[in-house]
Target: Tc1-like transposase DDE domain-containing protein
Amino acid sequence: MALDRVDIWFQDEARFGQQNTTTKIWAEKGTRPRVVQQQQYTYAYLFGAVCPTNGKTEAIIAPFSNMEIMKEHLALIANATEAGRHAVVIMDGASWHQEYLGDAFPNLSIIHIPPYSPELNPIEQVWSWMRQNEIANRVFRDYDDIVEKCANAWNHFRSDINRVISLCSRSWTNLTN
Model:
């Protein structure tokens, strides 16, 4: 496959839930705003992938992480890859990120980044952006509320292709120069 027909995707998953992130907020000088910190343990896992070359994104929200969900996510990426192109999915070495899962998709290959190197996976910046701009300082009623808020946050992130590209592009992924 010619390199100009290869799309680099970055994939990862993040846990969002009732033990949420708190961040700084704007407040009148001299006041001490309060933020509720929940103690419950309900979570959802957002499997996300971005292609900084064209700004495409794919995601699944699930109640847990396992190889079956991972395979469903890879199917979304494979289906989002145009005919005649090949997707190279870069991901960490989580136990459910098995390379053989990609064997079911002829237009997809998996490359693992080295252990303990999240800085090599730009989707980590997506999780940070979502937490800082959409998810932090919120209270969730239940699992369905977490799913709804995560879906809204992901859709807001992906609604601006320029944001996807600028947040996730890395010079070392340019295969044609």
User: Anything to note?
Assistant: The beta strands are 6-17, 43-51, 56-62, 86-91, 108-112.
